[in-house]
Predict the structure.
Amino acid sequence: MAVVLVTGASGFLGRHALTALRSGGHEVHGLSRRPPADDACIWHTADMLDADAVARLIRSLRPSHLLHLAWMMEHGRYWTSPENVRWVEATLHLARHFEAAGGRRFVGAGTCAEYTWDDAILGGRAIDEQRTPRAPDHFYGIAKNAAFELLAAYSRAVGLAFAWGRLFFPYGPDRPTMLIPEIVTALQDGRPALCTHGRQRRDFIHVSDAAAAFAAILDSGVSGAVNVGTGTATTIADVATRLGRLLGRPELIKLDARAARPGEPQCLVADVGRLRDEVGFVAKIALDEGLRATIASLSGTRDDHRNA
Amino acid sequence: MAVVLVTGASGFLGRHALTALRSGGHEVHGLSRRPPADDACIWHTADMLDADAVARLIRSLRPSHLLHLAWMMEHGRYWTSPENVRWVEATLHLARHFEAAGGRRFVGAGTCAEYTWDDAILGGRAIDEQRTPRAPDHFYGIAKNAAFELLAAYSRAVGLAFAWGRLFFPYGPDRPTMLIPEIVTALQDGRPALCTHGRQRRDFIHVSDAAAAFAAILDSGVSGAVNVGTGTATTIADVATRLGRLLGRPELIKLDARAARPGEPQCLVADVGRLRDEVGFVAKIALDEGLRATIASLSGTRDDHRNA
């Protein structure tokens, strides 16, 4: 049994990761600034940006495995914020103290934004860990890519097992500002969902599948970067149309109602060969099933708010 | 007049940078773990890896300009040491505190080891800041490249002026373990200098020229990476032969006396177009002159040791 410390444990991905790790039989510890009042894991309170507090926790807990999911994810800011640099510092500091305290395997959350998003280079092909150039455009991708390069070199130098899951487009109920919950909320309110042309193809993965993939990577012996996606490209128009149908309001889906962002890439889909063949993980939640769960969960949240 | 703080100020490059900056009319402060007892600048004592000490100094001094030369440079270790990651952390921390204290321009020391050293890709051409791929092989180059990527993104996000000098092959008297001082010392002792085939071409730049280039970059408005070299490729055999002649012991230069390291690149020379045209700096010290100065300085050092 591994002693696993999960950073960002109360976050979007973290909550689902705790479930996956516990069902794998591990002793699971969660780090959060504000741990929830539940027994999803053994909770520890600390701010990841408080270097001394993190060092103290690692020294006292001595985890064998680390699943590092924490990062600044404030909507509308994380993509370009200078705080990304603080998260690189915190990540390196975490890895050093983990290794010094006898840690054996470090798995971190990367992003598909580490790769180039240039359609001309991607050519509509699936993104491959080895062959696709990494040329991130924004600070978030630059920071994650630099963290990956540094952790990979550090791990080689000290003999630490290291893997890095590059997450594609997770969806689920907990990020109300993202595309899918936004459409659901509009339709539930009887408002039209104003979409772009919708021909952009993305690799959407349900957050609980994504979390289970990270747990599987932690349990595996795989080294280096592994894409975390489904391998299936779905157009945004298809997702919107499914949501219209599932919610019984297809007429509220308005394609071509607003302009796509300039330079928005056409196709971002993972080659999941490594995840499938080396980690042995395949996403299980079909898109309609994941969308239904998201709708149900958002309805519950909104009913709670209305009843409150 | 700028208030310039130089990190690594008592080091190989730092000592010469202080001279260049003072002759440029700046108020020059030097940071060092063990400042020398001289008035080459206003000295401050701190360990760059002591985050609190660095933050305190920056807050009290409030420099307008920062020339960040400090890095772990222990011979035989810096190329692969896991401590490289601590220097990335220290560098990011330094930049953040500098910016928070009103700092305006940050110039850091990069390295030609950030670029690919693959002969097949370089094809004997000069290394260009934009066109040559960055694909460092060793931890030192990986760490410097990651620091560059992060500092460039951070500076864009916060509006800090930022430049990065990628230093090629500095030589001078202060690194007795490097090629040129090693040959000089052997010949001064009457021992043969055992060289490889010597056909490798390198861009050797005298350390005082390199330091003057960094001072010029600091004074310029140039943004991003600038190669710091002479633009001239010299074979190691040529350097060795010159040293034999200058020291009057040509017969002690033994080419083909040992094997080159596997994968040692054939030609590493800077395209100095940016340094020349945008910074307005051209290296002044011809190779024979630099070699003579190195020989004279090493003779002095050795006489001092003998007399002590």
About this structure: Residues 3-173+204-231+268-285 of chain A form a domain with the Rossmann fold fold (CATH 3.40.50.720). The radius of gyration of chain A is 19 Å. Chain A has one domain: 3-173+204-231+268-285. Residues 193 and 253 of chain A are 5 Å apart (CA to CA).
